[in-house]
Amino acid sequence: MAVHPIEKRYGRQVVRQIFDEEYRLQKILDVEAALARAQAAVGDIPEAAADKIEEKANTKYVRIGRVKEFEEEINHDVMAVVKALTEQCGNAGRYVHLGATSNDITDTALALQIKKFLEFLFKDLRKLRKTLIELAEKNKHLICVGRTHGQHSVPTTYGLKFAIWAAEVQRHIDRVKECQKRILVGQMTGAVGTQAALGKNAIRIQKYVMKDLGLNSVLVSNQVIQRDRHAEFLFNLALIAETLNKIGTEIRNLQRTEIAEVSEAFERKQVGSSTMPHKRNPIYSERICGLSRVIKADAIVALENIPLWHERDLTNSSCERMIIPEACILTDYILNLSIDLFRNLVFDYKNIEDNLHLSQGRIMAESVMILLTKKGMGRQEAHELLRECSMKSSQNGVPLRDVLIKNSKIVKYVTADELDSALNPEKYVGTAVKQVDLVLQHLGYIHKM
To answer: Is 273 among the residues known to form the active site?
Structure first.
């Protein structure tokens, strides 16, 4: 029976399996095999022994059940793997794990797991970026009311919203790429990091092992790879999660009954509430926002793992068995939820238009203020005048135009036609459309304006 929801409810199986027992065991065996090959290459062990270890370093031979039998007996997970592999290797077993310490194997194996996970993470981020870019292009002329402090402000476009999010996703891609060289590292340094047990060829052995496995070598380490690397990686995941939290929060707000401009798709037989038949809740956005909190919390734990005692302790080990798989699996999951959400996003164009005019033209007060300054009125005077007229429009429940056209100070500077033009939201979105095109160009989706 599943205990943690990611076992059945949250997460994709293809990503979950990167962190399951079978895959982790195979990565540990891969590191043991690479160590044997490197030691044979420098002449420290016979080539035939390395070949045998490589052959048997596979979960076809080293079974999880057998490893667990050893672990129950000796209460040491890595040594249990070593014993299970050794018994499969005959005389070559004497060279298994020679000169290594547990974290040489497990930290390097973890880097291999993360390396595999990054294939999915980059794919997810690129899919989300593409989906947002397509929405930005499609809706770059779709004018809507902008909101600051939860209040109507001035017009903007939905295209600009999506372009801003797409550019943010690109920054996450850039950050993770930069982080790769620091997290995809392995070590072969032995107890406390001196490499004493690995002998005179230790530095060469480490380089051979990491080249073999497609990882970078640590520059220097003690008995464990330093945890600032893992904290940085989890904080990159937390940053991604918080972007999705931000986007999910915006969709939830825009789906509110009082706004209702966009909404999540609702399947034909989907149920919104167990008691209220009419409900259409933003469940995917809410799930994204909720799970983002877990990913963020995992990053905080990763920070706590940085200060270990002396050359190492075990305080990072237990929590990392949870926080790293959890953060990876949930980040992939909410990224894919976000992709599906945006690919099926529903627009209510009537409500978008109605909300644009809900304030009876008051969102265009700045536009009129700018017009008056161009016509010769001082900026501060124009600001105060439009503030007074806007308050009057709101208090009396009349369109802003009706107040403005009766104001002698305003009609002294502008004609009715000029005023109507300044009050037209379509003429006051500035460079919003051009900015979308610039984002598309920057991200490589169009080659010229």
So the answer is: yes
